[in-house]
Write a structure and sequence with these properties.
The chain has 187 residues and is α/β, with parallel strands linked by helices. It has one domain: Flavin prenyltransferase-like (Rossmann fold, 3-Layer(aba) Sandwich). The protein is 41% helix and 16% strand. The protein has helices at 15-27, 38-48, 52-56, 89-96, 103-113, 129-141, 159-174, and strands at residues 4-9, 31-36, 61-63, 81-87, 117-122, 144-145. Strands 3-2-1-4-5-6 form a 6-stranded parallel sheet, with helices on both faces. Helix 1 links the parallel strand 1 (4-9) and strand 2. It starts with a strand and ends in a 13-residue tail after the last helix. 40% of the residues are buried. The model has no long low-confidence stretch (mean pLDDT 97). Bound molecules: flavin mononucleotide. Flavin mononucleotide binds next to helix 2 and helix 4.
Length: 187
């Protein structure tokens, strides 16, 4: 069944995770709604060479972060899930404190209040206590926090392998993939 998923790319390092997620979701026939923040555009360009306009072509619809009248600003807008990939500490803080001053924080706020899936992929290191407390707060509110820290036990050979292993885990938690292609068998 095709799902309607909002993917937000914010200004943390790791824009490639968001790009890969969008492509995987689209490949599976899901409706991808896209939001790239101002600083997300900067990191996207710096790290992948892509502009938000390039990425927009791969999405069903793109929103502006300052458009608080857009569909995802309302809980009545029928999104199935919201993914913030990657998520900056600033956006994490906004969500943790219900400070919905842009469309990313508002869409996340709506996902939490409507009890929909909200997957947050924070990227920062080291973490200060404020970051850790904000992750605890969003987890208590119902979000799934999946730090951008890929595993190495499956012997990835390329950056693509690293990225896709995390993206598959994100998709499992978004409810669009039954199981990842790489599984620990215990043998
Ligand atoms: C190249 C670059 C890399 C950055 N990496 C991170 C990061 O990994 N984590 C983070 O929390 N902020 C990072 N920042 C800072 C955020 O972009 C900044 O806090 C911004 O206000 C986030 O806004 P947004 O969440 O609305 O996109 C980075 C900024 C730049 C320019």
């Amino acid at each position: 069944m095709s799902r309607k998923i909002l993917v937000c790319i914010t200004g943390a390092s790791g824009a490639v995770y968001g790009v890969h997620l969008i492509r995987q979701l689209k490949g599976l026939g899901h409706e991808v709604h896209l939001l790239v923040t101002k600083w997300g555009e900067v990191t996207l360009k710096h790290e992948t060479g892509m502009s938000a306009e390039d990425l927009e072509k791969e999405a069903h619809q793109r929103y502006r972060e300052d458009d608080l009248a857009a569909g995802p600003a309302s809980g009545s807008f029928p999104l199935d899930a919201v993914a913030i990939v990657p998520c900056s500490m600033k956006t994490l803080a906004g969500i943790a404190h219900g400070y919905a001053d842009n469309l990313v924080a508002r869409a996340a706020d709506c996902a939490l209040k409507e009890r929909r899936k909200l997957v947050i992929v924070p990227r920062e290191t080291p973490l200060n206590l404020i970051h850790i407390r904000n992750m605890a707060a969003v987890t208590e509110a119902g979000a799934i926090v999946m730090p951008a820290s890929p595993a190495f036990w499956h012997h990835p050979e390329t950056i693509e392998d690293l990225v896709s292993s995390l993206v598959e885990r994100i998709m499992v938690h978004l409810g669009v993939l039954e199981k990842p292609s790489i599984e620990w068998t215990g043998e």
